Amino acid sequence: MSKKDNGAPVILAYLNEKNRPYSAQDVFCNLQKQHGLGKTAVVKAMELLAQEGKIKEKTYGKQKIYFADQSQFRDVNDADLKSMDKQISELSAEVQSLTQSCRQLDTELKELNSSLTTEEMMAEIQELKAECSGYRARLEKIKSATNHVTPEEKEKVYKERDVYVKEWKKRKRLASDMMNAILEGYPKSKREFLEEVGVETDEDCKVVVPNT
Known about the structure:
The chain is mainly α. Helix content is about 65%, strand content about 5%. It has a two-stranded antiparallel ribbon.
């Protein structure tokens, strides 16, 4: 676009094509990216077009509104308006239908993109087969083992564990009682006492007495 025309032909063509009211700011925002028009140039061009009578100008308060000269368009009767309304309704329905189809196709495309390819599925099947084979071999090994624990042996182990846990708790309680009795006349803290006598608690070893 040359500096001489100042964007007026572009603006005039745009207003005639759209045939609706615009402010200078609206036209600037709509055309600046495509045609590189500056805001000052747009304002001056629209004022010039209005002065020349090529477009119409209306003032509402502090804002000016510009629109195409309606005398250049043929009159539209009621029949034409009804026909255009019908066409608009049909096109709107078609747009809605196409939009819905596009959304459905977009969803299907996303599902396809997230799905495995045939090669990937074959590779995963082979991995699963190898994994299953490993589990079968392990199961057969367990079944063929001769050192299974009998229910009686299992019960005995649990009973012995209960005995040891009870003894652990008993000795811990006795040691705690003895230590508390000593600490009543000890001038330092419990932690300093434990360090001095070289005693490690369950907490120091990060162990917890299991439940019986």
